[in-house]
Amino acid sequence: MKLKNDWWGHSRQYGWSVMIDIVDEHRHGGQAVFYSFLKDCNFNFPFRDLEDNDITFASRYFKKLPEIERGLARAKYEECKESWPEVQAKRIADEKKQLEIEIERLELLRVQQELEARQAVVERQALHEQAQDRERIRVQNIKIERASLAIQHLTQNGIEHLWHFTSRSNLEEILRSQCLYGKSVNPNLDRVRFLSDELSRDLDKFTRRDNLVRLSFIPNSWFFHRVRNTQDIIWLRFSLELLKTEAVHFVKGNGASTNVPVTDDISSLSMDWSTMRRFKGPYTDEIGPRTYRSHYKDEGEDAAAFREEGATWNSEVMVENSLRLTYCDRVYDARTGAIILQSSV
Question: For the whole model, what pTM was predicted?
């Protein structure tokens, strides 16, 4: 707002008064009139709006006064006018101060609202993280419980370890990285000798299982028989404890097959463990597996029973992405059963 002009008048109720004409660009028409009354030149009466007929302008007021009263009235008028600039300056200063206080209040309010908003974000994030932690703990507890049941189930059915076979030429790289990797996530793929053929690797990609490390329940499988006489093979023996920490899945049959179900619950496989144990072969901690039973379909043999038997003893445990050697306690020569490496898990 900007002061345009001011006029003096006399109010029967308040005495000498000043009318301030203020231009407000934000109001319709660009102008608003306010009346400010200053009783007895003390200038302490609050601003008020009055109707036009409540005030008589100074020149008209003097004309209406009797001659004997006019001089005294004019002296009072001049006294008020003389005091007005100081009061006007104080009024403007007070308004400026009030404006500064209001700006400061609004700024403090903005900062407070911003801090409250940030605090709300922090609190929501904390609640989200707490919920995530609770969910991780819940999932981990379920995993440990399920793993414990799986270990108990396997132990009761004569399975004490899990097994992985590979070319002896891969052992140096495995020991260097202290890890077995799924094909698609192996950072040392150019240094790995694959025993699987191209078709098997293509099937793994097709089923999106090429990131999995394959283990068997026994040191034997159809695929092992395909390569055992042409390759220098070793067996890595793993503790069942890996089921508690690694992300594992179970499959009844060859995991490369497109029509075998994958599950996290081993009991749901409905496995005939007595059939699997027939292909387990003799071995001890000191002398590893070296003889391997197989079974080829005889003429007249029931085809469905033969397929079920094959699926059973070729069943696998699949570990996501990588498997630490922490759980490997023996490495055996697959031909002689001799211990190549051993550790206590």
Answer: 0.62
